[in-house]
Amino acid sequence: MRHFLNLIDITTDELRHLLAEAARLKSARQRRIPTPTLTGKVVALIFEKPSLRTRVSFEAGVAQLGGTSLFFPGNEIGLGWRETLADFTRTMSRFVDAMVLRVFQHSTLDGIAAHATVPVINALSDWSHPCQAIADALTIQEHLGTVAGKTIAFVGDGNNVSRSLAVAVGKLGGKLILSCPKGYGFDEKFRTDYTARVSPDFPEEVNDPLAAVASADVIYTDVWTSMGQEAEREERLRKFAGFQVNAKLLAAAPKHCKVLHCLPAHRGEEITDDVVDGPQSVVFDEAENRLHAQKALLEWLLK
Ligand code: CP
Ligand code: NVA
C-alpha cells in the first residue's frame, strides 16, 4: 500500500510508468475503449479549498474507470476539529478504497497518511501539487517529444506548483529555471530534499525574467498569490509586477517555446489574455491531462 503525497517519493521509473499509462488511458478514451479497472472501488475526495480541475478530473476519472467517488468539503467533515485526524482517518479507511485530499497545511496529509490503511493522494497542499506535475510532464512530452534536455522557465512564485514541477523535470532529465522576485524562490528545505533525492543540480534562480526565458522550451507560470496567502495579495502584486508572462516576455524566448499554466489563471496579473489564448499556449491540453494522469495514478495505487 502506497500513498502519493509528494512526487519526490516516487522513482523515475515509477514516474515514467505513470506517464506511459496516462498516455495509454488517454488513447483508450479517445478511441472510446472502456477501461473498467476500478469497478467496485470507492474514492473519497475531501477538499479544504476550492477546485475545478482537480475535483472534476478525479471524479470523472473514477467514473470512467468504473468506480464511485464521494466529495466532501473539508468543513462538512470537520477535518481536524470535529474529531482527531487519527479518528477521521481510521474511520474513513474502513469505508473507502482511497482518499484524495486538498489541504491548507501539508502536515495534515502527513497526519492522515500516518493512520490510513488505504492510499492517500495529495490533491494540492501548501507544499506541493504532485498530480499537477505528472500532467505537466505529460503535456511537455506530447508537445516537445520529451522532457529530457528541455529547459522549463518557471516565471513566478517558488510555490507548491513550481516545487512539484521542478521535481518532475529534474527526475526526467530536464532543467528548470525559476525566475522570481528576491525572497520568493525555493527554500532551504526544498533545496535539501531536492539535492538529496532528485539531483545535485538544484534549479537555478534567475531574477531577470527576460534572461530566464532566453533558451526556454517551456514558459510556465502560476498565480502570484496562492490559496491561503490572500492576506499577502497586495504586497505580492507589487513584488511580482515585473514577472508577468506577456507578449514582450514571449518574444524574448525561442519561437518554438510553449506556454503552460496550471490554471486557474489570474488574467492580467501573472499572464495576459493574448498569451494564454495565443498559439503557443497549451494550457487546456495541460488541464485535460490532469484526467489521464490521475487515472493512471489511481490504477497504480489501487489495482
Ligand atoms: N490546477 C488546479 O489544481 O486547478 P484547480 O484548483 O481548479 O483544481
Ligand atoms: N499555487 C496555486 C495553485 C492552484 C492550482 C494555489 O495553491 O492556490
From TrEMBL:
One term under GO cellular component: cytoplasm
Pfam family, one: OTCace
Coiled-coil spans in chain: none
Binding site for L-ornithine: N160, D222, S226, M227
One GO term of the biological process aspect: L-arginine biosynthetic process via ornithine
Compartment(s) of residence: Cytoplasm
Biochemical pathway: Amino-acid biosynthesis; L-arginine biosynthesis; L-arginine from L-ornithine and carbamoyl phosphate: step 1/3
Binding locations of carbamoyl phosphate: R102, H129, P130, C131, Q132, C262, L263, R290
InterPro entries: Asp/Orn_carbamoyltranf_P-bd, Asp/Orn_carbamoylTrfase, Asp/Orn_carbamoylTrfase_sf, Asp_carbamoyltransf_Asp/Orn-bd, Orn/put_carbamltrans, OTCase_ArgI
Domain Aspartate/ornithine carbamoyltransferase carbamoyl-P binding: 2-142
Similarity comment: Belongs to the aspartate/ornithine carbamoyltransferase superfamily. OTCase family.
Protein name: Ornithine carbamoyltransferase
